[in-house]
Input
Amino acid sequence: MGTPSDKKLINENGLRLDGRGDEELRPIKITTDVLERADGSAFMEWGGNKILVAVYGPREAYPKHTQDIEKSVIKARYNMAAFSVDERKRPGPDRRSTEISKVISEALSAAVLVEQFPRTQIDVFIEVVQADAGTRIASLTAASVALASAGIPMRDMVVGCSAGKVEDRIVLDLSKDEDNFGQADLPMAVLSKDKQVVLAQMDGDLSKEEFGKATEMIIKATDRIADIQRKALSEKYKIENLPEPESGGE
Amino acid sequence: MFPGEDIEPGDLKPRNGLHRDPDGKYTSQYFGVIQKGDEYIDIVPFSGSYFPRRGDKVIGKIMDVGPSMWTVDIKSPYMTMLHMNDTPWRTISGDLKKFLTSGDYIYARVMNVNEIKESWITLKEPGIGLRKLEGGHIMSIPAPKVPRIIGKNGSMVNMVKDATFTRIVIGQNGLIWIDGLPENVIVASEAIGLIETEAHATGLTDRITEYLKSKKGEINGNTQ
Amino acid sequence: MPKDASGILSEIKKGYISKKLKEGLRGDQRKLDEFRSIRIEPNFVPRAQGSAFVNLGKTKVLVGVKIESGEPFPDTPNQGVLTTNVELLPMAFPTFEPGPPNEESIEIARVVDRGIRESKMIDLEKLCVEPAKKVMIVFVDIDVLDFDGNLIDACTMGVVTALHTATYKVDESSPETKLPVNSMPISVTMAKIGDELVCDPDVEEEQMSDARLTVTFTEDGHIRAMQKGNSGSFSMDQVKKGIDMSEAVGNKIREYIKGVI
Output
């Protein structure tokens, strides 16, 4: 969290800098199958975030010693484009992106039925082309859509959201200023239906009551975000029954 | 259906694509559609990898030749194996290259799959067209879309074959072999590509008929 | 959706492409000097100082420009600095791997950079704030998102669009200034298949070709950069033909870009 400053984050009408109420999300839009080569892909716009996710696999895990004979290994790679942030970022992984890649991989592993494909890996490539606070949960939410569109079996979708504390108030989905100058940030992701927590990180300062209020807001918001995920997926298909499978030949 | 969506199988037996919760409830594993038969209920995904099942007929590409078996890529996350004894040829250990070498394509049947997904295929089953695929052009589509390319009782693929004077073999793993005069093969592969991209839209048969008509000028009727 | 692009072209497909070329057409019905459809969205990343999202057929690249102050090179104390970097992201193709730039991405970045630099497109002297101490550095970063051939031209189009729309501030308090740009270099890349030159090759054509030629022109009809690639060769007549083709086709692309900026 940034240092406390004189920056006013809540206006005289009780609204946030961008005009949102406490429990209001920024606009979210997801488009699927945006890339030609990948097995599944999604483009996520969440506030000012613009994030592309591509899924390849399952494919044989390489190098061989990374294979797990009992399950598939999910390898998420979170990467920020050099021009995605205010000050140019040197290309390539750093400690922050390495940590985010790890927690995203782990969160997705909780949803994907990894035991169905031993010895393989599923690559989830995440490219943040414009960052605007909350990139990890936006990436994870989009990654879940890209996995579904790639036909990867999952017990449930993963859906993420953040909440935080700004001028002693608990608010949903922190903006960039709120993230930089607020008092706490709590990104979380759950399995869509049973709300099992698959990603949780926090930094800042929250009382137990505030934490409870923040998580309640997040859980409520995940239902709305899950709706957006489903709409994004079904938009590509006019659903119709398939004929019975049979084999081909001459 | 979406991953995690509840399913009530009723009297039907849950088969592919359904996940059973610890408390015994069923959910969809895939983004796809429900398919109910007389006995079974399946969720068929819109896309995804091929996983070998015993009895499937598949097209594979020879990747490596060993002393007594070939390693074959069947567009699955896993390689499959063809043993020299499972071919119609009199092979001697060490001379397998004479029969099949890297880059060759075959039409084979899945014989066995074990728990860690290793599988074996065979060419030794007469009367169902298993063989080395000589010449021709290979195209690739997602395996879940294979039934659409074939159509009811083969109606879709037969329409393409008849209109383009081509020979077509479709593997259940999503690899398709097309042989004929080059310009005809290209029209056939474009028609199959069209079926693939519009696999779930209505009025597909009509659109493919139209498409094939519009290409009539490009098709060479001299099949020799 | 994955296509059989990482595989080897069948003899049938190769035969078809060669036969079509004799009739003056390509596998996808294009004429020899015809580009695939071009769609460029400028300012795709508002946070960058300039940006462009390029769709060249199925090839997709995203160019972002960052302009920050820094120190000049000692041998050019009165000039701003231009750097160009290309990332072949692993999402773009099944065989692309994560890691530092490889030979291929460095070649692309350098050919694109050369066209921009040698055309004097950016007036680097105007980017000098305080000689020998403070100049503006123009960072051009290119993400390759989806690969279907001809990255050099897709990247050049994107960079030219992004630079033409870029603005910067020397520091927080100074006014927003338009990046001083003059000309508009356009690269045109041709692949040699058999004895024919084809513009804007896609992946299949790149696989069938053993030699590549890129020629970059500015609107004044001058050649500003050139690169021959791959292990095959061109006759001198073919090189001259390529130069003529580049100028003619490049003019059309330049008109398109002028329409979107």
Q: What stands out?
A: The two ends of chain C are 32 Å apart (CA to CA). Chain C has one domain: 23-260. Chain C is about 30% helix and 30% strand.
